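2024-03-11 09:14:02 DEBUG pipeline.ingest accepted 1 chain
2024-03-11 09:14:02 DEBUG pipeline.ingest length=127
2024-03-11 09:14:03 DEBUG pipeline.predict start
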Amino acid sequence: MTLPKGAGLRPATIESNASGPTTMNSETHNTGFCANVDYEVMCSIFGQRIAQLAASISDELRQPTPDAQRVELLELQQAELRRLRDEVQSDDVRAIARHVAHFGRIVREHNGEPARETPPASLPCRS
């Protein structure tokens, strides 16, 4: 597998067996592949939350008398999410996990999805 320079990922070794789907081995974990996947998940969650806030801003602006303070607050929340997202390093596993847990819950609640009592099952490559 060849990646363009600056892609931020190193090639990963993937194993498959006859009894199941492709799994990631310990070499894959050690290359940082999973940390980068988790980082992308975190960025996706931030993007979803920013989009939810944009929809709320749009809804407010369509009101006969929009609440300017509410719009400003929502815009500040968007800016803070962008700042948080941009500050996190792709290898900062603790910060990534913290943001995924916190903002993932907020996104799910906003979408009317049930809260999770326990985190979802870990991927095979996570320790």
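2024-03-11 09:14:41 DEBUG pipeline.report The radius of gyration is 19 Å.
2024-03-11 09:14:41 DEBUG pipeline.predict end
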